[in-house]
Amino acid sequence: MEQLELLLNKYKFELRPKPLEQGILEAIPFQLPDDYKFYLENYEAFEGSIGNEYVQFWKTDELLEANQGYGIAKYLPNVFGIGGNGGGEFIGIEFLSNRYHRIILSDLVSLEEEYFIEIGTSFQICLSDWIMAENGLTKIEQ
Predict the structure, then answer these.
(1) Rounded Cα–Cα distance for residues 15 and 111 (Å)
(2) How many Cβ atoms from other residues are within 10 Å of residue 7's Cβ?
(3) CA distance 89 to 56
(4) Cα–Cα distance list, 117 to 28, 42, 89, 114, 121 (Å)
(5) Measured between alpha carbons, how far is 16 from 58 in angstroms, rounded to an integer?
(6) pLDDT tens digit string along 80-89?
């Protein structure tokens, strides 16, 4: 997780001042990817630019409420929303099978899989790709 820590620190993600309540993670109906779980356990919510992308990663204690409120839990049972881009789209983790997943961007209106845009195969790769794009470099091969 050392590279992920470097990325998070580069964009001044704030460290969590106290440990995350384990009940929060246990209430999430998915086995979260290790890199995203590490972020939740160690860092606060984030809002700002990463590379050329504006992102809002939702507060840990609001994740379940946001997924219910936006209808993600109801209409996309294999997706867990983790944030948005401030433009009517959400960032989510799509759980495919046997711990395989991908990070997606989709609109909050239709909530249909046909509109999913894959933005990474992991949380860390997604962040790395945004930083690389800002510097005119190509995305990491996945």
Answers:
(1) 32
(2) 18
(3) 11
(4) 23, 27, 11, 9, 11
(5) 14
(6) 999 999 999 9
CA 82 to chain centre: 4
Nearest alpha carbon to residue 50 among 137, 117, 132, 107 = 132
The 10s digit of each residue's pLDDT in 106-117 is 999 999 999 999
Q: Are 39 and 5 in contact (CB under 8 A)?
A: no
Nearest one of 74, 67, 65, 50 to 124, comparing CA atoms: 50
**CA nearest 53: which of 122, 1, 119, 140?**
119
For the record, the structure tokens of 59 come out as 């507060």
Token digits for 44? Answer: 């606060």
Beta bridge partner(s), residue 47:
56
Contact 51, 134 (CB under 8 A): yes
Q: What's the pTM?
A: 0.90
Tokens 């867990």 correspond to what residue?
Answer: 80
Contacts of residue 63, Cβ cutoff 8 Å, sequence gap at least 6: 24, 28, 80, 81, 82
- H or E element: which one contains 118? strand 117-120
Supply 54's token pair.
Answer: 């504006």
Q: Does residue 39 have a pLDDT over 50? A: yes
Distance CA 9, CA 13 (A): 6
